Task: structure prediction
Amino acid sequence: MRKYILKRLLISIVILFFVALIIYILMRCLPTSYLEAVAQQKSSQPGAKSYEEWMEQLKATYGMDRGIISGFFTWFGKAITGNFGDSWKFTVPVVEKFKSVIGISFIMGFVSLILEIIIAIPLGILAAMKQNSKTDYTISVVALAGISLPTFFFASLLKLVFAIKLNWFDPIGAVGRNYAQLDAFGKFLDMAHHLVLPIVTLVVISFGSLMRYTRTNMLEVMNSDYIRTARAKGLSERKVIYHHAFRNTLIPLVTIIGASLPGLFSGALITETLFSVEGIGYVSYQAMVSGDIPFSMFYLSFLAVLTLVGNLIADILYAVVDPRVRIA
Amino acid sequence: MADKNRPDNMDNLKNASVFDNVPVTHVESVPARAAQDHAKKIASDGGDQGGEHKYSLNDDRRVKVLSPGALVAKRFFRNKIAMVGLIVLLSMFLFSFLGGIVSPYTQSQQFYRDDMMLKEYASAKESNELRYDTAPGQQFGGVIQAQLSLALKAGNTEFKTTKGSYEIVEEGTDFYSVRIKGGDEIGIAFKDILSGAGSDDSISYEYRRAALKAYTNGETSFEAEGKTYTLDEDDMIYDDSGKNIGYVSRYIVQAWYPDVFLTKEWKEALIESFESGEKSFRFTDADGEESEYELTYDPDNLRWVIKQERATRVLDTKSSPSWEHWLGTDKDGMDMLTRLMYGGRVSLIIGFIVEIISTVIGVILGGISGYFGGWVDNLIMRIVDIFYCVPSMPILIILGAALDQYMVPPMIRMVYLMLILGFLGWPGMARLVRGQILSLREQEFMTATEASGLSVRRRIFKHLVPNVIPQLIVSCTMGLGGTIITEATLSFLGLGVKYPFASWGNIISDVSDQSVLTNYWFLWIPAGILLLVTVLAFNLVGDGLRDAFDPKMKR
Result:
């Protein structure tokens, strides 16, 4: 097992290296709009150097004068020691900016994951129990509708109904206007109040897949031999379902939920942007659109790491949770 | 040689895998019934050739025989939810592709409306300051004028400047003439305005002086330049032939725009409303056009501003649903329903092309990887792993922003968008195809193809790939929905399809304007509903297809 994990880790690092390389090449091939904008601004000041001179100086300052490959190795060398450079747009070290915004993204992700589990798993089991009934069809269609909902449309609808027509929530922002004057508990309540709509958005658009997954697995388990045996020996339906079937359904569920844990840190780009919540998604959207290479590099590599960790967790959990699986 | 020696084998294999559209015969999960039916069909085909069994009562004669493809279709059509999805999809296609032809408008046709708008027309000021006119051949400069007004305020009848002394003669109410002491008249000072009747009449000094003198003294006639003029009670001036040539008034009225000439009738109407204290009046001009004028006082400049309510042609933006525009018009004055139709066309076409691109790449690489195994498989799968880890949404955002930088024309941009989306989608497809082929490769029919000496290409593309097609169709159908959402999200962020092309995403993007979100539901909700319904329909049909292809695994 340890050997397997070690091997997977090594492969992951190699993959990560190449992913970072691809992203870096891509970023360097794009126009460095940020530097151009700064150079334009600086050179238009009275008595300033020419645009070309500024551009040269800025490129040297930001390490853009090196070739792509040597530039990548410089970046990679620094990155593995945790130094991702300074963000151009936010003018603070990338890691510092990341630390200041990751909290709220994690909170949003975590709360919505919990809500998703609470909603999706019981619904999935219910649908599987009443397969092909009206309940089943309703739940399935609702789940699919959730999957099919474009985030931005649903978020706008929520804003229109709950923030503008009913006036229950503020349409944008993670905290209210007088947040600074509140005490600790008040701050908590204020933030919770502002995060209701973003979290509802996240839950509605993502609970569908977990629900469908639960339903599929539950159906598979319900059709297996040991359930027939359990019924044959005269166990109550309740016991069959909760004692035998559900426990076995848990195996793939735990695996998939475990694999989605790293995703809690990836932020919700669209939702955060629409609700102006200063999370990692919103901040990196701004960075990417304005051509902030250090921050974008960091965010993209970070997402790649999250994906790799997620896959690794899935594989390991699969073996850990289900004793029948043996990894060679 | 080997092929020619075994034509029968070949044909049988071909029959089994290619003739039926959906050759599930080899798939493990195919229901026993389908396989039996298939076997019967082959048997009955053979029987027909012999002719002996034509009138037999064997099972294959009495029982209606369905091919596996027909069975799949039958199962699919029995699935009510999937049928709803299919009908929705078909109507969406009709709406998008036929709608654009049926609609009387085009996608970027802008509409105008005549709006009654209050526009500045003229300004009027009561003349409270002295105005000056210089006698021909005399000097009546600023210093003299200033001294004159000081003297008048003080009530003096004479004043001095460095150049000499002058005396003032009060000729009438607020009307003075100035002469050098004991000498010639150098000019006049007055507050009433004398205007010509036409737009280009110039007024001579002598005429002005005589007219003003008569006016300020309440006389009804005066003489100037050898002609006799009369002044009536409306302060109109007529020459000896009885023609109106001008008028006198206390108000300075100026047109707001240089090309507008204010007629005396209009000015009369204006002054009338001044005198009666009304804030608005109606006036019919010489062409018979009646307009409403509104008077507002502008305290900053101490003047009255007259606004005319005039029909102005403006873009018919954000107009509510009506008979001409069933869903109103958008913020650029284009018909919303037509935009939705063209938008649907763009969204669907992009979805299909992207799916085709990623499927082709995915099938080729996945097929090669799964069939050959070994180092080829390893290499391709590691590439897939790498591309799988490249976060697609951020990449799309960055590329979109870069295309903005390069100012790529909208049409080319759409092509790029499709290529990028298609390229980012292939790793998933390759994994799916590889997984399927790995399991199919070990089955007996593949051994049979090998034994019958078929070429590698033929084995992959004629026998392996067709067996993956059911999974491919399902995955493509579901993927189409996802692609459409991705495209819409990008367009929503302003990084996808751009004006003048419509896409459902960029139609909804108007909602980032708070006033649209609050007040103009018809600008964004219809597009959102179409998007939701289309994606949902793709997912429902995909679900239905999966159940139909693979009934044992039913959900």
